[in-house]
Q: What sequence folds into this?
């Protein structure tokens, strides 16, 4: 059963999770962070950037692995997750870019990209703390409903609902790629600590399904119930159906 922490707002969630990440970095300066994209983790990244500055944390050996990437966006596209992770995480936190990995969504090498990503995570010794958001469909990473709970990194087709949700980041909805490469649910479950964040009414059902629903591939977030150390940090609205 995941531990659920209800906080007043996103800023408080960010402070709480940033505190846990900062402690981890102090304990283990070469720790491996699992990084999510989307709007949900942004308050955590901002709070962590402040902590790093104020506490003068040494992050020169901190490593990171993003959960997912779109397939087929032009290299350097500002909404590609490589660019997002650089802008929202690597630069503000002062991480070394070569230590922060994002799956490679280039179509030419996509056949080998998934297995390579799994190998890179293993070679790093696994993820210490995985930050997760959750989609309205219940997806974690880009593991849409129907994803095997044992799945590894692979190419997936995005649901229309997720494409519509993410259209806000693009000039037109047609520009949202159809495919992605994402860590699997089995990959995510190998992280030593999962921290799932969710805010607002729109996430309330996905949170209830993840925390209290049956564990099922049709509700990918419910996989966190299989994990021995999962923490869910939500505001009142996202907790309203618990
Ligand atoms: C995105 C990402 C997920 C993220 C989710 C929620 O598309 N691939 O990793 O958790 O959807 O996004 P948001 O935090 O913007 O609601």
A:
């Amino acid at each position: 059963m995941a531990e659920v922490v209800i906080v007043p707002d996103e800023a408080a969630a960010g402070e709480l999770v940033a505190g846990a990440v900062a402690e981890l970095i102090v304990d283990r300066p070469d720790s491996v962070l699992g990084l999510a994209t989307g709007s949900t983790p942004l308050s955590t990244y901002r709070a962590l950037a402040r902590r790093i500055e104020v506490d003068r944390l040494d992050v020169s050996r901190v490593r990171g692995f993003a959960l997912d990437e779109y397939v087929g966006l032009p290299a350097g596209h500002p909404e590609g997750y490589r660019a997002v992770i650089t802008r929202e995480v690597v630069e503000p936190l002062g991480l070394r870019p070569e230590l922060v990995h994002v799956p490679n969504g280039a179509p030419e090498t996509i056949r080998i990209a998934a297995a390579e990503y799994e190998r890179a995570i293993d070679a790093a010794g696994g993820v210490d703390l995985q930050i997760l958001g959750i989609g309205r469909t219940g997806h974690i990473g880009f593991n849409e409903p129907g994803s095997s709970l044992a799945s590894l990194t692979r190419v997936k087709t995005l649901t229309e609902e997720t494409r519509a949700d993410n259209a806000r980041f693009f000039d037109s909805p047609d520009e949202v790629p159809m495919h992605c490469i994402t860590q699997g649910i089995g990959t995510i479950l190998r992280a030593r600590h999962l921290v799932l964040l969710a805010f607002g009414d729109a996430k309330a059902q996905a949170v209830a399904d993840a925390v209290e629903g049956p564990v099922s591939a049709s509700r990918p977030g419910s996989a966190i119930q299989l994990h021995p150390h999962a923490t869910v940090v939500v505001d009142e609205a996202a907790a309203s159906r618990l």
